[in-house]
Amino acid sequence: MKKLKLVQQIVEEGVVAVLRGETPDEVVEMAEQAIEGGIKVIEVTMTVPFALQAIERLAKKYSSTTSDPSKYAIIGVGTVLDPETARAGILSGSEFVVSPTLNPGTVALCNRYRIPVMPGVMTIQEIQHALELGVDVVKLFPGNLYSPAMIKAIKGPLPQANVMPTGGVSLSNLGEWIKAGAVAVGIGSDLTADAVKSGDYSLVAKKAAQYIEAYRAAKA
């Protein structure tokens, strides 16, 4: 049941912060600021040096089962290319796994341990394959190659598909993606670019709050 609850929580939160950085400390700071700003689903990518250290620290501090809002967050691992990396992320505390591509072995491992997995897809064929493997949410990636109209195109033959665009989602188009039928969106560099450039990581919290406001407005 935990897997089903986690999928529901991720969809209800609606915005996933996709975090990349130069060090674990930098990514943890980004994550804490994003959570402070209201984004409660955090994806730490495996392109971060010593990414598992950041995941472990965040998983120890935050929990998807706590009743304390200040300590509530769902921590996951991203840019997972293979089952071995997925398992390492899970053992470090990741509660969900995100991949840039559809790797059947990674999906099988996540299903074995009842961990939500969101593989990257680009075609109807890939989405159908993902559904056959038991995937609950597919990541439309890179999202900047498509417009929100792609969701409608997917929903034509595959109305049962739950699609989360990632890459190219911004404050200006988030509402279009949600209204088109996206179950959630992944936010990458736009969330953190100003903070990294200025060194003021409180800007992540401010941008996160803007994204949450935009998401809630689109849902309303």
Automatic annotation (TrEMBL):
Pfam families: Aldolase. Its EC number is 4.1.2.14, 4.1.3.16. InterPro entries: Aldlse_KDPG_KHG, Aldolase_TIM. GO terms for molecular function: (R,S)-4-hydroxy-2-oxoglutarate aldolase activity; 2-dehydro-3-deoxy-phosphogluconate aldolase activity. Pathway: Carbohydrate acid metabolism. It comes from the Bacteria. Keywords: Carbohydrate metabolism, Lyase. Signal peptide: none annotated. SUPFAM superfamilies: Aldolase. Homotrimer. Belongs to the KHG/KDPG aldolase family. This is Bifunctional 4-hydroxy-2-oxoglutarate aldolase/2-dehydro-3-deoxy-phosphogluconate aldolase. It comes from Paenibacillus cremeus. The gene is eda.
